[in-house]
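Sample 1 of the test manifest.
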Amino acid sequence: MEFLGYFGGVFELKSLLLLFGGTIGGLILGATPGLSPTMAVALLIPFTFHLTPTQGLILLGAAYTSTVAGGAVSAILLKIPGAPANIATALDGNEMAMRGEGARALQLSFLASGVGGVIGVLLLIFLTPVLAQWALQFGPSHLFWIAILGVTVIGSLDSKSFVKGLLSGCIGLWLSQIGYDEIQGTERFIFADALTGGIHIIPALIGLFAIPQVLDMLAKGRSKVAIETIEVPKYSFLDSLRELIASVRALSIGTVVGSIIGLIPGVGGQIAGLVAYDQSRKFSPQRDKYGTGHAEGVIAAESANNAMVGPSLVPLLTLSIPGSPTAAVLLGGLLIHGIFPGSDIFDKHPQVVWTFINSMLLGQILMVIFGIYTAAWAARIARVPMPIMAAGVLVLALFGSYSVQQSMGDVHIMLVMGIGMFVLEKFGFSAAPLVLGLILGPIAGDYFTNGWMIAAAQDGPWVYFFNGPLNLVLIAMVVASIAYSFWSNMLQGKARKADREAAQ
Amino acid sequence: MNSSRLQHLIPGLVIFGLAAIVTWLSFTQEPASSFLFPRIISIAFIGLAAWNLIRAASGLARVGAGISGAMFANIAPGLVVMLVYIFFAAKALGFYVASIIAFFAVYTLYDPAPYSSAKDWFKRALVTLAFMAIIYGLFARLLEVQTPRGFFI
Amino acid sequence: MKTYLKKALLSAGALALTATMAVAADYPERPIGVAVSYGAGGATDFQARIVTMVAGNEDILGQPIYIVNKPGAGGRKGWNWFATEAEADGYTMSAYNIPHFIAQSIKGGVKYSADSFEPIANWGADPAVIVVGKDSKFNTMADLIEYAKANPGKTTTSGAGLFVGHHIAALQIEKACSCKLAYIPTKGGGAAAMKAVIAGEVLAGVNNLSDAFRAREAGNVKILGVADLERNDFLKDVPTLKEAGLDVDNSSVNFRGLMVKKGTPPEIIEKLAKQVPLMFGHDRVAKRMKAGGSPMHIMSRDEVKAMWAKRQETLAELLKGL
């Protein structure tokens, strides 16, 4: 309960102003396409030069939590996921917004983020020493198996056809191998100059989600029908709260999955949302509704995203090992002020660390309040006529994909992938498994190479990858997940056949 | 063989061809140590591509509506604007000028309001400038992203 | 017709000349970008952000410097981009890491070499150190070398990547002890290589002095040796590899600084070469760098040129036959 004593540090005028500023700024940055939380936090570091260490960290802590949640705004309203973390949110969230239920989707997403986020930070507060050792257990072989476990999700993720889902995933895995081999530095599959740098995930996300969306709008042509304005019903905060409580299953699955994945250094929060989405669908009696604008999908994805924030800082604060790119930027923010994380950081700099953690806790709550407040009018974007929406998303796609690395090559890749995905979608392939492959490919591939090299110096790859309790547990989970996919696919096939027969 | 089955066969064939190239490259490129993981992927890739192709050929893969002629006719003008905008104009004219033109072009091409009324043209111009002002404020002023320059800005 | 062409060419040339002169006089009139070839939060990124923070002061450049991260493949992605796509107008600089990009260009497969770039100034030098986990059975370099000799190719040693400073240090150690290590490049740079050591995935590691210093402060690692010519101020108790009996010089020391693309107008290079060291030497920069545990080493453009040439030579020698 030591952290309670340091709440005073947050409630000073300047700190409070920073907390407000960080939260609002973070929401705006997070909602901007092309700006991932990592970049947003990196952008804010120079501001902290003018502040004391404590104040600087209040700003960074509040911004980190709110950028992650802010990414949901563009995912829901524009179907442009702000960061890989928000992919799963876009799947159901955008469908809801298109129906005019944007306010409901946004409110649920912020509330779920808040619940997940607060629990994640509480884990950070109470279990740090225990969890730190746990986080260290994951070596290259385990991370490889975790990535493979993520790959097995592909078959069941948002696709109408099992084979095409898996095939989409394979295309994504292959695309991720283009460019330099991260470990050995050799070139692979470089067909065009723009590809030398590989495919950056954020321009790819913008292309894969936003461009097919734009083309779908254009496909409606110059007709009055396309222009019909959607009713945007008001959805009260209390209704959202009630609905959130009713969806306790999705909420708890999201929070648990997010916390666990956040802890594992090297996997990062990129897949927390997708895995939680998939798990909550598997356990839901209404699993057919996922992907058609089902609120549970948004709740599971967003609670996982923010639940990951707290635990992802455990390895950073206690071992000085940043578990995610954003944590690495935060490490920079700490170092600039002469604070070296380590197991004694809570004794050496209690004021700074606890104020930082407290600001994340308060940041979560403020983020919910601001988010809810803005949700009602942000949702009116669904009433924007189709031609304006299409033109606007196109312009945003250019600016978003360019600003990631200031490279025209990225922009070209974005459009080519987008048009390709539009065509593939028309033939039953889907973007979500492809993106999952694109994210997991480098993780699985690089840890495979890494483990292979260590194994070569030890007892060989067989022993290295298939021994030890943690490897075996993970392999068992992989096998179970594959078996489940095939089994449920068979059941679905039978059900469809029965439907057809009944119809005849 | 109806046209819908034929339409599904083409992507099936293209993807199978791609998978074959990827597999071939993975097993022939050097250094082999860099291609260990791509080899694993390529085996799954070509296997699934073959399965998909067989399903498409036998008419089992009916998921997805394909692309109709009417749909393509609707998309075509916007697609041309998109391609010129991204591959040429953005760099040649600068991001902001190119974006103003592209936004206005897409909006005009797909706006059902009549082209004869001056009021509607004025509205289109106004919306374009307002939207681009927001984009300029966000990217150039707030985030200070340096974009390729053209005329004026 | 011919005279027409000549005239046209001449006037075009004159126009271009006056244009560059005008450009140089006004330079810089908008913010300057620095491409960092490593991820946000890494040592290079973090230091680049600190040393450029006072660029906007009127007596330095009068325009702020912003950072663009282009991470990937040990820096190859970023420097390839810089050598091929960036404009040589002085508004895009890049951070360099020596010996990384020189070693990579010698090894081949990239689109740059030391001749593709013009150095501006150097801000820091971070020597490589040898680290082992806190519970490791190795307490000195001698222990480690003895084990490596008894178990050739089994001493797993992590580092940030292939053909970066850490790899060079490992190669030099192998050469000096005529033994065989198992160098393991990791995904995710120095931080991941350090994690592999702390978690016991590998027996030893080569890492940045600044990161190793912090890890030791946190009680996670032991530092066995520094790959430099002299002991470091941050680690007075740690012997150099030379003292430990290994003939390893300072070729692996990670020098960081700013460079522009070849073909940048000389007036702009001149102005930068004069102003950038002032920026690096600014009091506020020095204070922040010290707080962050990052050793500074400011060198002028001419000094850096000489250093690049020397590295080119020693690295070509070391990497011969690899």
